[in-house]
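Final report, closing paragraph on structural work. Over the funding period we assembled a curated collection of sequence-structure pairs, and we close with a single example.
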Amino acid sequence: MKIKEISIKDKFYPNKLKKINKPPKKLYVLGDEKILNTECLSIIGSRCCTDYGAKKAEEFASKLAGSGITVVSGMAKGIDSKAHLGAIKAGGKTIAVLGSGFNHIFPDRKVFDKILESGGAVITEYPEDVEVFPQGFRDRNRIVARIICGSINNRGKRKKWNRNYSRLCKKIWKTYILHTACNRR
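Its predicted structure, as stored:
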């Protein structure tokens, strides 16, 4: 599959992302670039989630995708990956946003492949050889928060990342759901 470069002037560049201060000048896309401007909702959360949390993330994603909403997440282990897989199981669309280039898929190549096989998209603002690095995750979260119209946050034990992402979502979009029961034992 060929990597597509989508400039900010391209018709497939996410319209909501164009409105931020200093948007990426271009995005690199694998998969269906046409879904970047559909109605999107993110499901994010803990990498170290419980079985219950993973199940709920998959159920939420499946119901959303089944009703035509594109599920967006960061493809991290735990809640993010379960959200992508739930959307795929429902026959819906999903977008993964990476914090690295395509030559450094992190953390799960299997989820990455399933997203592309199902007609979804994987996007990044980084050229293919950029390795995983801490700021890349913050940049990824900025893109996730800007291309969606709402978010479901399955909060985990380590709350700092979720708290920062939550503040960003609340600032940008009014639709925000915090599902705190997803990590109960």
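The chain has one domain: 32-183. Confidence is low (pLDDT under 50) at residues 173-185. We thank the funder for supporting this effort.
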